Each structure stands twice: as structure tokens, then as C-alpha cells.
Amino acid sequence: xxxxxxxxxxxxxxxxxxxxxxxGLDITSLVSQLVSAEGDPQKTLLTHEQNQITAxxxxxxxxxxxxxxxxxxxxKLNLASAFTGLxxxxxxxxxxxxxxxxxxxxxxxxxxxxxxxQAHKLVSGVVASGQTFGGSAGDSLTLTVNGKSVxxxxxxxxxxAEIAGAVNSAADNPGITATLINAGSGxxxxxLTSDETGSANQIDxxxxxxxxxxxxxxxxxxxxxxxxxxxxxxxxxxxxIDGVTVxxxxxxxxxxxxxVTLSLASADPASPTTLTVGADTxxxxxxxxxxxxxxxxxxxxxxxxxxxxxxxxxxxxFFGDSMTRIMSNQLVSxxxxxxxGASGRFQTLADIGITTSSDGTLTLDSDKLTQALSxxxxxxxxxxxxxxxxxxxxxxxxxxxxxAGGIIQNRTDGLKSSLDNxxxxxxxLSQRLADLQTxxxxxxxxxDTLVGQLTTTSNFLTQQLANLPGAANSNxxxxxx
Length: 481
Hints:
The protein is of the alpha+beta class. Helices cover about 40% and strands about 25% of the residues. The protein contains 8 helices and 22 strands. The two termini are about 45 Å apart.
């Protein structure tokens, strides 16, 4: 058996060490060393494999991210509509801005913003804050906008604040906001403002009071010269396009020019400006520039994950890996070819200002691209989005890697399965080593018990032999001799 004894030379309160009573061996330490000798090499091997697989999964994630980003750029260029978009440009965005739909016609137009749309506004006379209106049975105030009305009961006599509160809280409010202006010295005025602009949304007032004070509501709107607005039709916005007057209830004018929306910002009847509707080269140029940048980012990612890092350096995860080499070759081959069947004057990327540098990245000549788009945007579009176009073919290549069930997903799934298998092996190894430790401990304890028993027996026999008759004389004779 084993026992726990104080280490020789240690105090009674010192560290305790498990030793065999019979053998004197540190059985716990001995068993631990034997188990480690058995398990450590396998643990090291499994941990190394686990780290390698984890690094590959991480690298595949980085590669997939770069490929997916590039694919998003390619998908945008794979739409013919991306190259047929139009843009509307205002000669003065202080006066108006404009947008163009795909059905707009290219051209130039002279636009004058004569006036902006206004929300009808009524203001009462200035009265003391405690002044009441109405006070007789049946007294009321009815406000109507675009055929819908709200009635305010004045039978109890209402102050301006009470009238404003009643208007704003009414469930059937037709689109009116009531506010108060404090004029000082306890004086107030009520302002009623239509929630929508334009003459169709003007406020009509019916004040039905038997006697007493009147609200004396009057139009507060002003024209561009600052004069009181007497013609409420001028609540509508007005613009002149190539000499034709256009009216709108809001400051947005839709389809006065087919496919074009004008957003009026300020009025200046004396300052006509030019509206130009033309090809949207800016967004196309931006999309192509994004494609170039994302392709270059992929080249950088592939280089860091698989490129040779020099003699003596630690090589990256996919160094010598066939997948990245094949993928790179496919992309380079596609970008270096001409597009068969492309309509127009452009057949290669170099024709529109995109060339390949010595490190495999693409270089974009923005001026040459702008010139190509200005010359024939549809031909540039054909270069990318035709059946044999770059975007069409690149999308096929990229989708085989990052599409559903693609190469990277399948490879990642396989690695994750291997990782799960390693985890199972680690768990099995841990259990086997635990069982081995239990067995070794039991065996050494049994040995220690046997040694202890033999030692006890030996000591007993020695003692008994010493006590046999004649043993003393024998010992004495030996001493005398």
C-alpha cells in the first residue's frame, strides 16, 4: 500500500509527497512521467495538425472574402443597364437639382425657377393672452383643407392657446398645425399652417360667433418680393422650361421632361440655368474603378496566402497549393484575352485604359476610361456584359469558388470535418491516458504493497531467528572469536 509521509528533512507543516511505504518510490511522479512519455508525442502531433487545419480554414475565409468582394464588383458590371444609365446635371444646384430615369432623353434645357411652393399660412390679430373668442351657444370655428374640415367649439369662450390645442389634438384634423407667437407684454397671435404645400391645400376658415372678438385671420404668405400674397394660386411652385411654364403643388416637379425629376431649392426668376441630361459616366467609371481595386486586393491576398516569401522565411499556408495557382491562372488568362463578339471599337481592357502591371495587379488610366465612356459607353458595356464579356466570364470563374457549393465551401467543410475528427481523437487520447494512469497507479501500489509485506516478513524472521535458543551463545562465540 501507499502512504503519505513527511519528506525527510522537511518540517511537519511542509510539502507532502506521496511515497511507497515499502519501496520508498514517489509513485505519483513516476506514474505521471510514464503517462506523459506515452501521451505527449501524440498530443503534440494532434495539436500540430489542429493548428495547421485551423490556419487553413482562416486562410480560406480571407480568400473567400476577397473573392466575394471582387464578385460583387463583377456582378455590377455584368448588367447592360449599368452602362446605359443617364444623369441629369443642374447648372446651379443652389436653384435646383435633378435626377434622370432610364427613359429620359438626352439633351439640354433652359430652366428658370420662378417661385417655390409654399404652405398656406393664416395669422390672427395680436390680442392679450387671456382674450377669449366665442362664448355663446353654437359658436364655433371651422377649418377646411382640400374638402376636409375640423370644427372647434367656442361656446364656452376659448383663448388662442385653447384654440391651438383643440386644433392640434383633433382626431379629424385635415392637415393643419396651430402655433402661437408671443409678442411680449402678454400679447399673442395664432398661426395656422397647412401641412402640405400648394394652392390645393389652402386653409378655408368659417368663424361662426354671435358676438365678441374676431380672430381676424389673414394670409401671412409673401411673394418673392416680400409682398403679401393675394393670389393663392401662387402657393404653387412655378418653373419655366424652355419657355414653357410648369406648375407644381410641391417643390418637386416630376416628368415635365420625360424621365426627369427637378427638386427646386430657391427661386430666381432672373437667372435661367442649364439642365443637361446625358450618359451617367460617373457611376460607370466608379464601378470599373471599384472592380480594379478589388481585383488588386485579391492579388495581394493570394500573394500573402500562397506566394514565396524568400529563402529561410516561413512560407504561407497555401504555398505550393494547386487551388490558388489554378484560380490565379484562370483570372489572369481571362483578363489578358480579347472579347470575341464585343460590339463597338473596344476589344480589350487596354482599349479602355486598364493594363496589367509586372506584379499582376491592374492599373487604371482614368482619363482614357473617361474618354472611352464619353465616346461610346455602350461599347464599353459590351466589353463587360456581353455573352463573352469580361464580367460574364469572370463571374463564372468566381462563382465556381465562392458560389453555393463552390470549391472553397467544399474545402472548408472538409477541413472542419477533419478538425472535428482531431477533437474526437484528443478526447479519446485523454480518456486512454486517464485509464493508463489509473492502471499504472494500481500496479505500482500493488508492487509497493508487496515490497512492504516482504520487508515486514523479513524483519519478523530476522527478529525470530535472533530469539532462537543458542542464538545468543552463537553470537557471543562469534564475538569472542
